[in-house]
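Q: What residues go here?
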C-alpha cells in the first residue's frame, strides 16, 4: 500500500512539475524515484552552508526576483535590464554566468568547478567550453549531466556545494551593489533638497 501511495504522488509531482515554466532547471529524475533532491542534501551542517540552500532553491524553482521577474508585477514601472551592468536583460543565465559586475565572484568558483568537471568526471572539454545553457543546467541541477553513482557521489556532492556557494556569493554581491547604488541615489537626492 505504501509503495502504491508513493508511486501515485511521484507520478503526480512529475506530471505537475512539467507544467510550470519556473521549474525548467529542475530535473524530474529524483521526483520520479521519490528521493531527496541533491540540492537539499548536504554534507556539512554549518549554519553558513545551510543558509546557502534557499538562494539556490529560489533560482532553481524560478522564484528568485530578478528584473525580468519584477517586470511581471510592476509592468510600466520596471525595466528588465540588469541594474548592475545595464548590458542585457537580467535573466537567470545573465545573473549566474554573464553579468560583468559579478565576474570577480564567479572566476574562482568556476575554476574549481572546472577542475572537478575535468578531473573527477574524466571530461576532455573544459566546463567553460560547454554551451552557456549546458553550464547553467549543470550548475542549477547537476543530476542532468552527472548521474550520481557510488564512485562519484563525493564529487557530485562537491559540485553541488560549489554551485550552491557560487549562487550565494552572486546573490550577496548583487545585493551589496544594489544597496550601494540605492544609497548613492538617496545621498544625491538629499544634497539636491
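A:
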Amino acid at each position: 500500500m505504501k509503495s502504491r501511495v508513493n508511486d501515485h504522488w511521484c507520478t503526480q509531482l512529475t506530471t505537475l512539475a512539467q507544467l510550470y515554466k519556473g521549474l525548467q532547471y529542475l530535473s524530474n529524475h529524483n521526483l520520479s524515484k521519490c528521493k531527496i533532491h541533491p540540492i537539499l542534501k548536504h554534507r556539512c551542517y554549518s549554519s553558513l552552508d545551510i543558509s546557502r540552500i534557499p538562494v539556490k532553491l529560489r533560482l532553481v524553482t524560478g522564484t528568485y526576483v530578478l528584473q525580468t521577474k519584477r517586470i511581471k508585477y510592476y509592468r510600466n514601472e520596471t525595466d528588465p535590464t540588469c541594474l548592475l551592468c545595464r548590458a542585457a536583460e537580467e535573466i537567470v543565465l545573465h545573473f549566474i554566468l554573464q553579468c560583468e559586475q559579478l565576474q570577480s565572484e564567479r572566476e574562482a568558483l568556476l575554476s574549481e568547478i572546472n577542475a572537478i568537471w575535468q578531473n573527477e568526471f574524466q571530461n576532455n572539454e573544459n566546463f567553460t567550453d560547454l554551451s552557456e545553457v549546458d553550464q547553467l543546467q549543470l550548475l542549477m541541477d547537476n543530476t542532468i549531466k552527472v548521474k550520481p553513482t557510488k564512485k562519484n557521489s563525493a564529487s557530485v556532492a562537491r559540485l553541488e556545494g560549489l554551485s550552491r556557494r557560487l549562487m550565494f556569493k552572486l546573490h550577496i554581491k548583487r545585493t551589496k551593489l544594489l544597496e550601494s547604488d540605492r544609497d548613492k541615489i538617496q545621498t544625491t537626492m538629499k544634497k539636491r533638497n
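A: Context that may help when evaluating the design: Residues 23 and 61 are 5 Å apart (CA to CA). Residues 153-192 form the longest helix (40 residues).
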